[in-house]
Amino acid sequence: MVQVCLNGARGSADGAVVPMSPGAMARSAAEAVAAGATDIHVHPKTPCGRDTLSPRVVAATLEAIRARVRVPVGVTTGAWAEPDPVARADRVRSWTVLPDHASVNWHEPGADDVAAALLERGIGVEAGIWSGTDGAARFLASPLAPRVLRVLAEVTDTSPWTAEDSAHALLAALGTASGRPVLLHGEEGGAWPVLRLAGRLGLATRTGFEDTLVLPDGERALSNARLVTEGLAQYGAARRPPPTGRSD
Questions:
Q1: Torsion sign (Cα): 19, 22, 25, 27
Q2: What is the DSSP string of the chain?
Q3: What is the pLDDT of residues 116-164, one digit of tens each?
Q4: pLDDT tens for residues 1-32?
Q5: Closest C-alpha to 65, from 181, 212, 224
Q6: Which residues pair with residue 125 across a beta bridge?
Q7: Which end of the chain has fewer beta carbons closer than 10 Å to its terminal beta carbon, N or C?
């Protein structure tokens, strides 16, 4: 599985190619799915470009995207969108249109309560486990760990030279992650090395403007679809065994 992460917490300063409105997100999602993405992760935005868990904005975003694609669509529940953990869970309970799944960052206060609110509503939980945090330990100690849809192993090391080592350390900390599927991804300078590692390990991964604005050669990407196309090529090449020399 290659998920497309359409926008993340980026804003207008990151360029006009990052989709901010429901219509722009829907167009970008359709292009990315046509390029081969099989799942969508999106951050619904207020008109001024802030991430939000508002039921009105979440509904408008999901409806716009679903009018264009027929793949699962998930949203964020990041604390930056609603800092108060109780209010965050209440926001989930107030949603009128439900995503297929939502990410919960397990190092954030109230993660178990937010995840429980999602599960109560039949929404799949992507357990966001960030490197450099205590998220892995907190997740593995949670009674909800066996019930999540998958684990998002999120490598926050942005160095192209050390991100892969950080990814291995994160996967080791997660262990079997309660038997749940793992989606491994990096960000910024670490995005492409970690995506290739996911290919070698046969793990699900993702790409998109949330994780990187550039292609592997450093060229600015002009669309999420272009990132997906390149991501699939890089992932596929990483999965293929190296050629062997002939002995005859």
A1: negative
A2: -EEEE--TT--GGG-TTS--SHHHHHHHHHHHHHHT--EEEE--B-TTS-B---HHHHHHHHHHHHTT--S-EEEE--TTT---HHHHHHHHHH-SS--SEEEEETTSTTHHHHHHHHHHTT-EEEEEEETTSSHHHHHHT-TTGGG-SEEEEE-----TTTHHHHHHHHHHHHTTGGG--EEEE--GGGHHHHHHHHHHHT-BEEESTTT-SB-TTSPBPS-HHHHHHHHHHHHHHHHSPPP-----
A3: 999 999 999 999 999 999 999 999 999 999 999 999 999 999 999 999 9
A4: 999 999 999 998 999 999 999 999 999 999 99
A5: 224
A6: 102
A7: C
Locate 5 and state its tokens.
Answer: 């992460």
pTM: 0.94
Tell me which residue has tokens 């009018």. 67
CATH superfamily of 2-239: Aldolase class I (3.20.20.70)
What does the angle CA 35 – CA 23 – CA 151 come to, to the nearest 5 degrees?
A: 55
Contact between residue 6 and residue 208 where contact means Cβ atoms under 8 Å apart = yes
- In the sheet that holds 73-76, the strands lie side by side as 182-185, 150-154, 124-130, 101-105, 73-76, 39-42, 2-5, 205-207
Domain residue spans in the chain? 2-239
Task: List beta partners, residue 54.
Answer: none
33 phi, psi to nearest 5 deg: -65, -40
Phi and psi at 51, nearest 5°, equal -65, 140
